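At this stage, I needed to go through a protein sequence along with its fold in token form, as given directly below:
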Amino acid sequence: MDGALNMTSHVDGVGIVVRNECDQFICGKTLSFDQVSSPAHIEALDGKVVYNLVLEHRFSPTRLESCTLLLVQVIHSIHDFVVLLRVIYEDVMHLFAQLSGFNFTHHYRDENYVADSLARWALNCKPCDVFFTSTPPFLEDIITKDCI
């Protein structure tokens, strides 16, 4: 999962990649949001999108890898978190707590390049709400390199 923000237009692009235990592409989701105020706002929105995708397609158990460190920190320790978006983060944490077998880990952007590419694609193709059931052509080279 990753998000991309255009600070000038306040538009967010979200990219989500679902892989199986053999690291093969299962599906992907891109989405764009208008009126995004900050990176923290993006991360909260991204968390809700991922939760809905996991629930809708019954992906369980789920290991979520994200370069959105703030969301990972909040999921692990909401009590230490003070931010204007706390209510949204608490909502996201409550939603994820309801999923069985859920694991949330942080990965740096260079380890999460496929989701980053989807997020940037969504940002440039707004409005965007696309669900991919096969690898989109613009990701094929990226996924091949990522699996090497």
Remarks:
- The CA atoms of residues 30 and 101 lie 24 Å apart.
- DSSP finds five helices and six strands in the chain.
